[in-house]
Write a structure and sequence with these properties.
The complex is a heterodimer. By secondary structure, chain A is α/β, with parallel strands linked by helices. Helix content of chain A is 45%, strand content 9%. In chain A, a hairpin with a 2-residue loop joins strand 4 (203-204) and strand 5 (207-208). In chain A, helix 2 (42-67) runs antiparallel to helix 12, helix 5 packs across helix 13 and helix 6 (145-159) packs parallel to helix 7. Chain A starts with 12 loop residues before the first helix and ends in an 8-residue tail after the last helix. The longest helix of chain B is centred in the first third of the chain and has 15 residues, at 6-20. Chain B folds into two domains: 3-183, Rossmann fold (3-Layer(aba) Sandwich), CATH 3.40.50; 197-323, 3-Layer(aba) Sandwich (Rossmann fold). The chains are: A alpha/beta, B alpha/beta. Bound molecules: thiamine diphosphate. Thiamine diphosphate (TPP) sits between chains A (102, 141-143, 170-174, 199, 201, 203-205, 270) and B (29, 58, 60, 82, 86, 89).
Chain lengths: 375, 325
């Protein structure tokens, strides 16, 4: 029988949930440390820095290509490099990455060639075909659907007795979809080694984070599912690395999943089809630029005497040349045969697709290529 | 009379419907201050306020689920789904509840709502932004499916859909959102649901389509007429329940028919039209009916979508096939 407490009052959420989440930071904007540095060699820090710069330059090039009509709608990531690179740096090669559509930096770091990423946005299905030794799921356009897939993959690893983990990205908007809640719940029940990485960039297209959910934080949503949750400064690549690494360690040890809320910001539009001046101030953008993730890591490396302005300049120049080559290769890609539309629908092509493919080929033979204005 | 694009006509219809009926509420992702990603709801938020023009959290299932509750309670919700590619998230509530609330409750509760969503290809966006999903909803008893092909119809059909006591899916052809301008009356007017438009009268062959494919078909029948072929073009406007009289009368007259759609052909719009033609006017047919459609594959990414989509050449070839039978 329950003993009566002195004042018989119901326990409410407010009683249980007294503390607020605050974003965990290791690296201050000026490059000084707030705590113990993660166990990363100078080469590893430089590698992180390089991918972040690659992503920044890639973004610029892709947006320009889109503006010139040489690329389809594109989702830029500038500003969110640390949230992606810090977390993905904690992946082992055999771990699986589940992006949404803005995780170009994380994907490049985990082994997807930049050219493939560009192909995807250029309307070429080959861009969704990662190399055989790269475990990255394809871009998930329907928001939050990838969350459950990541749980399934981690669960499968567990069933097979392997300690592979999965890392899944989504935005603050994605936390409103049922798939987010169902995914966290499954992962909690089956104790999968999944890291749920919410890049809270404070907007879902035009909708500000406060209108997305009445929760004070995204991180606290973990409580409902009995899993670990944490809020991290998403523009701090070291904190992102450290927190993700620890989450993976727990997951691999059978202690279950973690929800990480990485607070960050996208400098650009939601996609090239979006006009952010309709819903946010440029002053807000400027404020976030003062906490730029790339600058922050650079300042830190300089303070550690493992980097200098000369190296920084040489790096940017090298990356610009690298991305120029990526664009050049992209533009030199030949038009693909129409079989590509039909192949892979099933493992073997059924009769009706054989027929339809033959029909299409006949049309092209008779009327020419519809991509060349013959229609 | 103002010359409006299709998207402006949709916007105009929404303004008027909200002005004339204060039960009308618009809800969806980015429909408020942002005016919708295609600007269909531009200005509504300023005019009617945030209680009637609601930016929702990002959850399509909840948008339609909530709209069902609203509709039953007495509001006239107009949920917007950003792209038909995200309609699968809505499917459960649409198929399990919106479509059959009236039937299940013997008319005690009804579900008068209009779900608007841009459909079809042609904007160079990534995967899931180009789908034509009409067949799923034709197959679901209790739903009306409406697809305008021009600004004038878009306004009149949307007004009718909002007044209709049944759940209506209103799919907007986004590739021609801004492609054509047309004189559109300023006042409120209705185009009845379930009535097709005979866009062009002809005697040799009937071409049946709807939405953006109407324009491809127009181009094809113009070229056919240069070859001396007289083609009748029917724009269904309401895809389901459809105007069987117009179809039957036309096919009985011409004896030949070509059906055009963007969607894959298996178990589709054209499958149903073809079946109906066989059931209603088989005796008048002088040739097998031709289908000009997308292929039974996922819609390719944008670079190859022109191979996939019906175009005037393919429609013209279809016309010639039925004539040369
Ligand atoms: C199921 C679904 N609904 C709507 C969309 C259209 N859409 C694309 S991105 C987006 C906002 C996503 O915001 P958030 O989850 O915060 O991620 P962010 O883009 O900010 O990284 C919306 C509504 C979609 N892709 N999928």
């Amino acid at each position: 029988m329950a003993t009566k407490s002195k004042a018989n009052k119901p326990v409410t959420v407010k009683d249980v949930f007294k503390n607020k989440f605050t974003p965990y930071t290791l690296l201050n904007p000026d490059g000084t440390l707030n705590g113990p540095a993660p166990d990363l060699s100078p080469e590893q820090l430089q590698a992180m820095h390089r991918v972040m710069v690659e992503a920044r330059v890639f973004d610029e090039r892709a947006v320009n290509l889109q503006r010139q009509g040489r690329l389809g709608t594109f989702a830029p990531l500038s500003g969110q490099e640390a949230a992606q690179v810090g977390s993905a740096f904690a992946l082992r090669k055999t771990d699986w990455l589940f992006p949404s559509y803005r995780e170009h930096a994380a994907c490049a770091l985990h082994g997807q060639p930049w050219l493939d990423i560009l192909k995807y946005w250029g309307g070429n299905e080959d861009g969704s075909r990662v190399p055989d030794d790269v475990n990255i799921f394809p871009v998930a356009i329907p928001i939050a659907t990838q969350i459950i897939h990541a749980v399934g993959a981690a669960w499968a690893a567990k069933i097979q007795g392997k300690d592979d983990a999965t890392l899944v990205f989504f935005g603050d908007g994605g936390t409103s979809e049922g798939d987010f809640h169902e995914g966290l719940n499954f992962a909690g029940v089956f104790k999968t080694a999944t890291v749920f990485l919410c890049q809270n960039n404070f907007y879902a297209i035009s909708l500000p984070r406060e209108s997305q959910t009445s929760s004070e934080s995204i991180a606290q949503k973990a409580i409902s599912y009995g899993i670990e949750g944490i809020q991290v400064d998403g523009n701090d690549v070291l904190a992102m690395y450290q927190m993700t690494k620890e989450a993976f360690d727990r997951g691999r040890a059978g202690e279950g999943p973690t929800l990480i809320e990485a607070q960050t910001y996208r400098y650009g539009p939601h996609t090239t089809a979006d006009d952010p001046t309709r819903y946010r101030d440029s002053a807000e953008v400027d404020q976030w630029k003062e906490r730029d993730p790339i600058e922050r890591l650079k300042n830190y490396m300089i303070s550690q005497s493992i980097w200098d302005d000369g190296k920084e300049e040489a790096l940017w120049e090298d990356v610009r040349a690298q991305m120029a080559k990526v664009v050049e290769d992209y533009e030199a890609l030949p038009e693909r045969p129409v079989e590509e539309i039909f192949k892979y629908t099933f493992e073997e092509m059924p009769w009706h697709l054989e027929e339809q493919l033959a029909e299409l080929k006949d049309f092209i033979a008779e009327y020419g290529n519809p991509n060349e204005g013959h229609h | 009379m103002p010359h409006l694009t299709l998207i402006q006509a949709v916007n105009d219809a929404l303004h008027l419907a909200m002005k004339h009926d204060d039960r009308v509420v618009v809800l969806g992702e980015d429909v408020g201050e942002n005016g919708g990603v295609f600007r269909a709801t531009e200005g509504l938020h300023d005019t009617f306020g945030e209680d009637r023009v609601v930016d929702t959290p990002l959850a399509e299932g909840a948008i339609l689920g909530a709209a069902i509750g609203m509709a039953a309670y007495g509001i006239r919700p107009i949920p917007e789904i950003q792209f038909t590619g995200f309609m699968p998230m809505v499917f459960d509530h649409m198929v399990s509840h919106a479509s059959r609330l009236r039937w299940r409750t013997r008319g005690r509760f009804t579900c008068p709502l209009v779900l608007r969503a841009p459909y079809g290809s042609g904007i160079h966006a990534p995967e899931h932004h180009s789908e034509s999903h009409e067949a799923y909803y034709m197959h679901t008893p209790g739903l009306k499916v409406v697809v305008p092909s021009n600004p004038y119809d878009a306004k009149g059909l949307l007004i009718s859909a909002i007044k209709d006591p049944n759940p209506v899916l209103f799919f907007e052809p986004k590739r021609i959102y801004r492609a054509i301008r047309q004189e559109v009356p300023e006042e409120i007017y209705e185009i009845p649901l379930g009535k097709a438009a005979v866009v062009n009268e002809g005697t040799d062959v009937t071409v049946i389509t709807f939405g953006s494919m109407t324009h491809m078909a127009k181009e094809a029948i113009t070229r056919a007429s240069e070859q001396g072929i007289s083609a009748e073009l029917i724009d269904l406007r309401t895809v389901w329940p459809l105007d069987i009289d117009t179809i039957s009368t036309s096919v009985a007259k011409t004896g030949r028919c070509v059906i055009v759609q963007e969607a894959p052909r298996a178990a589709s719009f054209s499958s149903e039209i073809l079946t109906l033609i066989h059931e209603k006017v088989f005796d008048s047919l002088q040739a097998p009916v031709e289908r000009v459609a997308g292929f039974d594959t996922p819609m390719p990414y944008y670079r190859m979508e022109n191979y996939y989509l019906p175009n005037a050449n393919r429609i013209l070839a279809g016309i010639n096939n039925v004539l040369n039978f």
